[in-house]
Amino acid sequence: MAALQRPALPFPRNVPKPGGARGWLIGAVALVIVIALVQVNQFSRLTSTGYEIESLRRERDTKAAENHKLEAEVGRLSSLARVDMEARTRLKMEPAQRRLYISVNQPVPERRALPTRYLAPQDAPAVPADNAGRSLWQRLVDLLPF
Amino acid sequence: MFGQRGRMNLRLYALAAAFAVAGALLTARIAYVQLVDVGHYKQEARAEHFGQQEVRAPRGAILDRNGYPLATTVDAWDIFIDRSDWQDIAAARTAADAIAPVIGRKPEDLVNEVRAEASGLYLAYSGLAFDEGERLQGVEAPGLRVVRTEKRYWPEGDLASTLIGFVGRDHGGLTGIEADFDAQLGGSPGTIYFERDSIGNRIALGKERYGREPQPGGDIRLTIDRYVQRLVEGELEARIASTGALGGTIIVMEPQTGAILAMASRPGFRLSQLDFNDPDEGLFRNRAVTDVYEPGSVFKTLTAAMAIDTGHVTPESTYDDIGAAYIGESTIRNWDYSVNGVTTVTQVLQRSLNTGAVWLAQEVGADAFYQYLRAFGIGEPTHSGLGGEPGGLLRTNEDPLWADVDLATNSFGQGVAATPLQVITAIASLVNGGRLMRPYIVEQEITATGTRTFEPVVVRQVVSEETAHTVADMMNLVVEGIPGHLASVRGYHVGGKTGTTTGATLADGAVLDGNIASFVGFAPANDPRMIMLVKLDFKEDRLGGQVSAPVFGALAPSILAYLGVRPEGSQLVSTSR
């Protein structure tokens, strides 16, 4: 009972009342900081992604340029002028003076046109139809009985 | 007191009202800017903040009929130097030492040329190889600007140069196929947006996005066969060199389809040595398509076909050749001033008699003669798709200035002008059952969205199939009926007709009394796989049978063998199973 009669202790002045203005202020500042950090993080990731996209685009352009260069090189190496020069100089061949005919009972082999940028890749290894392009999780989900 | 206070209140009210009105106007303006006209201001702000640049689409390739590239595009770099950054001589020398060896220049020359002006961009090298340009991008050199571009590359060298043509500095086609099919080859450019700073310079790591992706140009597959083209060009150059001709044209065509297998003309230009500063612009054209000439006696085949088709004569019909034809006050004689007496229609072609051609034309009559000529495509473009093709010059009896002598001279190919392409197209109809085909040189357009194939087009049936076969047989007799004819080919039956034109204007007007020697031949005679026109230009007198027919005789065996036509009596050494 004595304890009940003891006067109530004064509320400490330096502790902010819950729900007081200072609490809201701290909360707001914390929220702003969190939002700012999230935004900074997002911008950082965005910039990194942008840089990555740009790098990949450059890499794609470089590969395309190399592809064009290789196509041109193949064209140059298969040019009639070069074949003629190689035949005459390296292989010491001369133009035929007499023609002999051999009947070949085989179809003419199909040659692939150059450049090939509009043709579907024909030499790519075949990928099995099932599981092709499906993630591990999708495949696990597929194992469920329902 | 009250009055003073009342005046004060009034002033305050007025001031408040003024503020209120101003505030309202401002608010209205803000609302207008932010809500109503938002699109316009957004666009202005974006334009201020973002730069826009056109991205060129990769140009398509020009392929021969088997898919071998005749012209293709490789990536390259243009090297620029900002002159203002090289005003400091020490910095300029350091940069020049790094750049000059890569672009094959002397550093000191580069420094002097760049510093000749105080500002602006100096193009140090155009079309630097891709690898070299990439290496140069890593070089720390003030003022260096490396700009991505592309350049045309011709794997077959200067083959078919006048036909293919070339592109300009803006990569647009200027002549030949490059110009005629520029829309298909060029694709459509894209747009790229990039962030820029307050003075408009691009921010190195700023935002960048495509407004519109560039659509690459399509490939053009020609009917030209690089092997036949090379044979033809080699032979043409060799004959020009050995005979002293001023120039010439050779066209090889598939008579059944109108597909052009080879087309060469000289003088021409070398793609590998193009000089845009050359004042002689006349060189940059495909003379096989753009230049007209008097076809001469090869026209007699058309005149004979008309006379047979109308039923006036047969190959055995005769006339009495007295060596001259009198048309009003004009006298027309045979090219060799010969008098042949009773002569058949076949002999008219074999001996190439002008008087005989006049007789045949008179039998046909002017109205029918010109209707037939029109039907053969003389006097109108062939619509082959090649640019710069004229209709030719043909004066018919509907023209008030026309005279009877015009019919006489037109009958043997004089007083009328046509392009080599028109002439071979007309005569090809006689070895194709009388069907006039539209000549074509583009077989396919291959784009990312699909392939468009051009099919052969029959323009019209000019003469009956029977007439065509008859005339083709007569042309066979023109070659094989004359022993030792220079167009004859061992192992193959061929047909043809010579032509010689005198008084021709040649070499772009430099020669006014020139001579054109021509020959049109086809083989094999029973089932023609190819027809060829050979035309050589001379300052002095030459005959088609002497200089042009041998060109056919030299080329035909190689072309026929390449096309898989086996000569009769050839030795078959073995057969695979």
What is the secondary structure topology, with strand pairs?
The complex is a heterodimer of chains A (146) and B (577).
Chain A: H1 2-5, H2 21-77, H3 80-89, E1 101-103, H4 136-143
Chain B: H1 2-36, H2 38-49, E1 50-55, E2 62-63, E3 69-82, H3 89-103, H4 107-114, E4 121-129, H5 130-137, E5 144-153, H6 161-164, H7 176-180, H8 182-186, E6 190-195, E7 208-212, E8 219-222, H9 226-243, E9 247-253, E10 260-266, H10 287-290, H11 300-309, E11 318-321, E12 324-327, E13 330-333, E14 341-344, H12 345-351, H13 354-364, H14 366-375, H15 404-411, H16 420-428, E15 435-437, E16 442-447, E17 450-453, E18 458-461, H17 465-480, E19 495-506, E20 511-523, E21 530-538, H18 544-547, H19 549-562, E22 572-575
Parallel strand pairs in B: 2-8
Antiparallel strand pairs in B: 1-6, 2-3, 3-4, 3-5, 6-7, 8-16, 9-10, 9-21, 11-14, 12-13, 15-18, 16-17, 19-20, 20-21
Helix pairs in contact in B: 3-4, 9-19, 11-13, 11-17, 12-17, 13-15
